[in-house]
Amino acid sequence: MKRDVFQAIADPTRRAILSLIALQPMTPNALTEHFDTSRQAVSKHIKVLTECQLVKQEQSGREIYYHFNPKKMKVIADWLEPFRQLWETRFNQLDAVLNNLKNK
């Protein structure tokens, strides 16, 4: 099944997994400790993240460590950029209006 990064980040558990491994590489068991769900459920989320290339895996002895792939997050950042510019412009306009009201 072909998935994209937006499908991957649509799920709150997958977003939480990304937040955790962005700080440090983690094994599935270490990740499971952060959730009230089974290791199998966490592994399914990791599989989706891996398929979308948001996560890379590295074998170290008997353990598999999952790493955050910031290059794929750029797809999301690029998509969000026009919206960020829009809200920044509107917030700047609001700041100008509030400053004008404050100075009257």
Report on the architecture of this protein.
It is a single chain. The protein has 104 residues and is mainly alpha-helical. It is built from five helices and two strands, in the order H-H-H-H-E-E-H. Helix 2 (12-23) crosses helix 4 (39-51). The model has no long low-confidence stretch (mean pLDDT 94).
Distance between the termini: 60 Å
Radius of gyration using CA atoms only:
19 Å
The proportion of strand residues reads 5-15%
Profile the largest sheet: 2 strands, antiparallel
Question: Can you count the beta strands?
Answer: 2
SS class: mainly alpha
- Mean pLDDT across the residues is 94
Attribute tags:
2 strands; mainly alpha; 104 residues; 66% helix; elongated
Topology record:
Elements: H1 5-9, H2 12-23, H3 28-32, H4 39-51, E1 55-60, E2 63-68, H5 70-103
Antiparallel strand pairs: 1-2
How would you concisely characterize the structure shown here?
This protein is mostly helical and 104 residues long.
